[in-house]
Design goal:
The chain is an all-alpha fold. The chain has one domain. The chain contains 1 helix and no strands. Keywords: Membrane, Transmembrane, Transmembrane helix.
């Protein structure tokens, strides 16, 4: 019973970690994309 609870807690922790990791990746990708777009616009001028 305690093992099952531990596995469930671990699964929830892994889901939360994955969500936070996806959020970090999405933010960093957005920052990189905006930076590349700014560099492209500056070079275009």
């Amino acid at each position: 019973m305690s093992i099952k609870t531990w596995q469930e807690d671990r699964a929830e922790m892994l889901r939360e970690d994955r969500r936070e990791w996806l959020l970090v990746v999405a933010i960093s990708l957005a920052v990189l994309a905006s930076g590349a777009l700014l560099a492209y616009l500056v070079q275009g001028k």
